From TrEMBL:
This is Twin-arginine translocation protein TatA. The lineage of its organism: unclassified sequences, metagenomes, ecological metagenomes. GO terms for biological process: protein transport by the Tat complex. Residues 57-72 have a biased composition (Basic and acidic residues). GO terms for cellular component: plasma membrane. It is a single-pass membrane protein.
Length: 72
């Protein structure tokens, strides 16, 4: 199974236009674009918290090492 050819792509586009109508397709594409944009911004906002979490784990490890060395 390879990539669809020209006729297959034309048939798929024709079915989509018949199902949704010419006016609805731009709205669907706009909604899809906004969804992708929101997803990318959410991923971008989430990245700094990973760095903070790593810093917190390092601090916790330091505290654990200090408490174990003082007990001995």
């Amino acid at each position: 199974m390879g990539m669809p050819g020209g006729f297959e792509l034309f048939a798929i586009v024709a079915v989509v236009v018949l199902m949704f109508g010419g006016k609805k397709i731009p709205e669907l594409a706009r909604g899809l674009g906004q969804g992708i944009k929101n997803f990318k911004s959410a991923v971008k906002d989430d990245e700094p918290s990973d760095n903070i979490t790593s810093a917190n784990k390092i601090e916790e490890n330091k505290i654990e090492k200090e408490t174990t060395t003082t007990k001995a």
